[in-house]
Specification:
The complex is a heterodimer of chains A (about 55) and B (about 300). Chain A has about 55 residues and is an all-beta fold. Chain A is built from no helices and 5 strands. Chain A has one domain: Rubrerythrin, domain 2. Classes of the chains: A mainly beta (about 55), B alpha+beta (about 300).
Chain lengths: ~55, ~300
């Protein structure tokens, strides 16, 4: 299990071993949506808010 | 002949993208996951030597630009740029479906508040107003009377971006608490689900649940015709039941499918990958090859 720090509240956020860059994980402490920006070393950034042309 | 190099264009990696990556892995196929936000295309130089790219971009504007640039540089894309153009704007989709004789709800398009009000009164109340470009049921409105229509149109004209100054007005279909979503890949029907909700908007992004829908001959025929009308590819065709008749409400080009796998028992991700790999090996989406042969 890898982990990284939440950029919002500095909590330790666990990530599954099969986590990939681009995945979004919630911070268990503050609830912020965090995007996995890198894996070696693991880096989390605040996930961008939904934009008007997002979707399917 | 060497295998074409495969890539998947994505931004946020959702459950669907992970299912697709897993489907590639199960087939022992290498695929490069490309974050569209990190992609830089120099229009004077060749793009990376991808034979084919599967688009799973979350952001439409990114998908449209990237697919065009890749296609013009010889990369096979699924879906094709033109298919995304055809599906992403409801005005274009409805126009194509209607012109192809595919039954759609009565739809009027207006270009001013006065024109939109005239269109709403023409289809009668309740009327449905949708943004031409939008997903997940966002900003879709059911208008029950003239007061609501005037208020909504004033808000759109004042607060909306220019994209909201084209008014897509549709008759309201009193569907039976559900719509039908049909998954199609390369002219083949994969499966269908019912999206069930107490709310009149039946997007799963808005909380609708899914259950398997047996595919009748009519559903199959209509869905494949709708898919062909927008250019084919990997698509989800949404159908509305209006009494005994079926209408096509929209066609989606980068659909989500996480809630439709267990209920149908169909490996949707695997079937998408199979279609994509077939397109990559042909050097074109199978439908466009057929069109070229028939031309």
């Amino acid at each position: 299990m890898i982990s990284a720090q939440c950029p919002e509240c500095e909590a330790t956020v666990p990530c599954d071993d099969d986590t990939v860059v681009g995945e979004v994980v919630p911070c268990p402490d503050c609830g912020a949506d965090l995007e996995v920006s890198a894996l070696r070393p693991p880096l989390l950034v605040l996930a961008p808010p939904e934009e008007e042309d997002w979707g399917e | 002949m060497s295998e074409p190099r495969l890539a998947m264009l994505a931004s946020r990696v959702r459950v669907e993208e992970k299912m697709l990556l897993d489907a590639f892995a199960r087939r022992h196929l290498d695929v490069e996951l490309v974050d569209v936000r990190r992609l830089v295309v120099d229009t004077h130089r060749a793009v990376p030597a991808w034979g084919a790219v599967l688009d799973r971009s979350l952001q439409l504007s990114h998908a449209l630009a990237a697919l065009r640039l890749l296609e013009d540089r010889g990369v096979v894309t699924v879906n094709a740029h033109q298919v995304v153009v055809n599906c992403s704007d409801k005005v274009v989709t409805t126009s194509l479906l209607s012109a192809a004789g595919v039954p759609v709800p009565r739809t009027l398009v207006a270009f001013s508040v006065a024109g939109a009000l005239e269109a709403i009164e023409a289809v009668g109340y309740p009327a449905v107003i949708k943004p031409p470009v939008g997903s997940w049921g966002r900003l879709v409105a059911r208008v029950n009377d003239r007061d609501a229509a005037e208020a909504l149109l004033e808000h759109k004209a004042t607060l909306g971006s220019v994209a909201h100054h084209v008014f897509y007005v549709q008759e309201h279909i009193a569907k039976p608490g559900r719509d039908i979503r049909v998954f199609v890949a390369g002219g083949e029907l994969l499966c269908a689900v019912e999206r069930v909700s107490d709310h009149w908007v039946t997007n799963t992004a808005r909380g609708a649940s899914t259950r398997n829908r047996p595919v009748s001959a009519e559903i199959a025929e209509l869905s494949l015709r709708a898919a062909a009308a927008v250019g084919g590819g990997v698509l989800a065709v949404d159908l509305l039941e209006d009494g005994e008749r079926l209408l096509v409400s929209e066609v989606n080009h980068t659909m989500e499918f996480r809630n439709s796998v267990d209920v149908t028992g169909v490996d949707i991700a695997g079937r998408i990958v199979d279609h994509f790999v077939a397109a990559a090996r042909l050097g074109a989406p199978p439908e466009s090859m057929a069109l070229a042969v028939n031309a």
